[in-house]
Amino acid sequence: MKVLQGDWNAQGLRIGVIVSRWNELVTRLLLDGALDQLRLCGGPEVTVVEVPGTWEVPPAAATLAESKSVDGIVALGCILQGATPHAQMLATDVSSALMELQTRTGVPIAWGVLTPETQEQALERAGMKLGNKGREAALACVEMVKVLRKL
Predict the structure, then answer these.
(1) Which residues are catalytically annotated?
(2) What is the tally of helices (H) and strands (E) in the chain?
(3) Which one of 15, 79, 81, 150 has the lowest number of neighbouring Cβ atoms within 10 Å?
(4) Hey, where are the domains in the chain?
């Protein structure tokens, strides 16, 4: 049996981090976690792209992925659930667009987009109680770049 597995050594990699400014209190914590984790993984070359909201993450990711200027992408955002189905539609559309993009281009895109019901839940997932999902997405991105290189 052959088992392929990535690692978390990001030295020499080029990673794009796309972060939404909407809900910036939360997304800034996600970004800080992702950047700190990438430094701990060996300090890859990092390009941070700030976009207005989570809706704008997929076009920025497409431009990065199609330019072949990065080996992997970390997508960071925060979509707070509300009284209308807007948040669910937004999350579905963004996740579908990013999945299609990574499948089509072969550039892994790690999902660091929170979809909490409350601001408190968002802050918990951005490092206050339940770990930092930006940090976790950065690790997933590095590992997937390494796994795909082995395939």
Answers:
(1) 86
(2) 5, 4
(3) 150
(4) 14-150
Question: What is the radius of gyration, based on Cα positions, of the chain?
Answer: 15
Q: Which DSSP symbol is given to 132?
A: B
Closest CA to 106 of 78, 54, 145, 60: 145
pLDDT of 91 reads 95
Q: Which amino acid would we find at residue 103?
A: T
Contact 30, 19 (CB under 8 A): yes
Dihedral sign for Cα 113, 15, 9, 25, please. Answer: negative
pLDDT tens digits for 43-82?
999 999 999 999 999 999 999 999 999 999 999 999 998 7
- The reply to whether the predicted model has a pTM over 0.85 is yes
- Write down the CATH superfamily of domain 14-150: Lumazine/riboflavin synthase (3.40.50.960)
Q: What is the pLDDT of residue 85?
A: 83
* CA–CA separation, 149 and 79 (whole Å): 32
Which residue blocks in the chain are alpha helix, DSSP H? 24-40, 57-67, 86-105, 119-125, 133-150
Going from the C-alpha of 78 to that of each of 16, 38, 122, the distances in angstroms are 18, 20, 7
